[in-house]
Structure prediction request, 190 residues.
Amino acid sequence: LTKLMTAYLTFAAIKQGTIKLDQTVPVSEKAWKAQGSRMFIKVNTQVGVEDLIKGMIVQSGNDACIALAEAIAGSEENFAQMMNREAQRLGMKSTNFRNAAGLPDPQHYTTARDLATLAAALVRDFPAEYAKYYSIKEFRYNNITQPNRNRLLWIDPTVDGMKTGYTEAAGYCLISSAKRGDRRLLSVVL
Prediction:
């Protein structure tokens, strides 16, 4: 679920002109070696920012998160500092980020309330980007097609996106959002 903050900062960087949607960024060895969910980017290649966004959101690619973090902040460590500053600005009082992908770390934590705050901010501050990327049901990159892990996109036509997560430490987690009439419903399950 950390990837919501990575996406938030990525959309902000595009809006500010730090990176461009149509530019390519280099894939470092660190990004290529990312553990867990991946979009399977290759080391020493260039990948488009829009592909990395889709890989992060649809495929839950940890490799995509690291590549975006490095492109925006120079390193994942610098990006984590940006994440924490933004969390404080948004009022996320019980959150501390240590990496861009949400991989387990004793000092990486949050709460359901803080994640709801972040999810609501993402929809409010980047509505076009939310609508464009979070409802994508599958994405193909490097000849590998992966489905969106948010299976509610197939079950309920009012569900328009958000994020799933799993680590052994946290278990299965879900933030989901549905638009019903003029009302948006947001659910955070940890």
